[in-house]
Design goal:
mainly alpha, three-stranded parallel beta sheet
């Protein structure tokens, strides 16, 4: 397990997943082409369960491409179903990755006034900033965020986790966050991506 985390830390979670996806589709495409050629030559065939496994394990696009190019398994409805299922299964993480690289980079500032009868009067006017899910925000954008936060005369900064997607980027993010002027300090929790990237090494 430590070896796996080491690989993820050195390559990056998104990059590793994309490499896996490309590799699975190339392998699946080659398996379909190989099986088609063996079928034409009446040779030993690749088991259908193997083709289905690779189709569902990330190689659905490679399977679809092979079905279109070499016209293999096109008459079997079960393979068409498995290709569709495979495409659906792996479209979910792909959409998530695209979202994280596009919409997640949008920076939103929201200011709220909080009122409560249970809020101590000595904390009236206390200013708290909450920042979370920074992920792939660049150092330049982080510097801009820090500038915006420092204009708001903060008493406390809370961090909601997921500060980065890789060790080197994490160092820059933490370095920028440390420039925030909050009278009572900066406190935060780890997110799932931070744990994968190895926060314990960097703290």
């Amino acid at each position: 397990m430590s070896v796996l985390f080491g690989i993820i830390r050195s390559i990056g979670l998104i990059e590793l997943f994309l490499l896996f996806l490309v590799g699975m589709n190339v392998i699946t495409f080659l398996l379909y082409v190989m099986d088609k050629r063996r079928a034409l030559k009446n040779k030993w065939r690749i088991r259908e369960s193997i083709l289905i496994f690779f189709t569902l394990a990330g190689g659905a696009f490679g399977a679809l491409l092979a079905m279109r190019i070499v016209r293999h398994k096109t008459k079997k409805i079960t393979f068409k179903i498995f290709v569709v299922l495979g495409l659906i299964l792996f479209s979910i993480p792909v959409i998530h990755i695209v979202h994280s690289l596009t919409l997640d980079k949008m920076i939103h500032y929201v200011e709220l006034d909080f009122y409560s009868e249970n809020w101590p009067s000595e904390l009236s006017g206390y200013r708290i900033a909450f920042m979370t899910d920074i992920h792939t925000t660049t150092d330049e954008d982080m510097a801009e965020i820090v500038g915006q936060l420092n204009k708001r005369d903060l008493d406390l900064l809370l961090l909601g986790g997921d500060f980065s997607m890789g060790n080197s980027h994490y160092r820059g993010t933490i370095r920028e966050i440390a420039q925030v002027n909050a009278r009572d300090g900066i406190f935060g929790v780890e997110g799932n991506h931070v744990v994968i990237c190895g926060i314990e090494i960097l703290m």
